[in-house]
Write a structure and sequence with these properties.
By secondary structure, the chain is mostly helical. The chain has two domains: 13-125, Annexin (Annexin V, domain 1, Orthogonal Bundle); 129-173, Annexin (Annexin V, domain 1, Orthogonal Bundle), CATH 1.10.220. It has helices at 13-27, 37-48, 58-70, 76-84, 88-102, 106-113, 116-125, 129-140, 148-157, 160-173. It starts with 12 loop residues before the first helix and ends with a helix.
Amino acid sequence: MNVRRPVSATRSREQWTLLQKTTLLERGSVTSVELTGNVLAQLLFLCIWVKAYTNFDAKQDALNIETAIKTKGVDVVTIVNILTNHSSAQRQDIAFAYQRRTKEELKLALKSALSGHLEIAILSLLKTPAQYDASALKASKKGLGTDEDSVIEIICSRTNQGLQDINRVYKEMY
């Protein structure tokens, strides 16, 4: 499978290390990668910039994910490869094709098949950008005080249309 990742001269040493680990995971050289805290955030950040996959077939990807979920021990590498190498719109199409095929939501199937930080990362990838931003804004208000950095990053880096979408989705979700 052709892996598409953004090329950026501003990646930190930790981000390059994460990319090396995930590449080794894809090749089968490493059986697992510890996805905790900062590493999880970096992986999600790297997946945001994935361009649309050119040879896209939602039905085939849905079938591959279904097979990966039903595989004994769950084929995590296949799930990660499919969902991280497609744009957000394509992931939504895959989720729709999966639901039409199996009569079950992809989110629920993945939630029962995965666990821990990987589950959080994969389920986050299934959200639309507006849903992800709305949930990040909600999470920034949890606990004592507010995570101003997250709020500022989201509010200042989105277009007017993007902010309207976030507002609409936030009201629907919460």
